[in-house]
Specification:
The protein is mainly α. It has one domain (3-67): Winged helix-like DNA-binding domain superfamily/Winged helix DNA-binding domain (Arc Repressor Mutant, subunit A). Helix content is 42%, strand content 5%. It contains three helices and two strands. It has helices spanning 27-35, 40-46, 52-67, and strands spanning 7-8, 19-20. It has a two-stranded antiparallel sheet. The chain is globular. The protein starts with 6 loop residues before the first strand and ends in a 9-residue tail after the last helix. The relative contact order is 0.19.
Amino acid sequence: MVWRERIVADPAILTGKPVIKGTRLAPEFILELLAEGWTRENLLAEYPGLQEADILACLAYAADALKGEKVYPLTG
């Protein structure tokens, strides 16, 4: 999934926060709903402008963001 085709950032929309192209829905919001137990079907019914590919793009966006995360063990 090439999320860059569906996730965009525009300073005029949500102060430049990434959103799903053509909406004001942030990937973070979609991921939070999924984490709360919403299904893809729930999302698509509640947000008619949303497409299945948009949900997959949010997941791919999150996966790419986490790939760069570094974790260092704490000693104490």
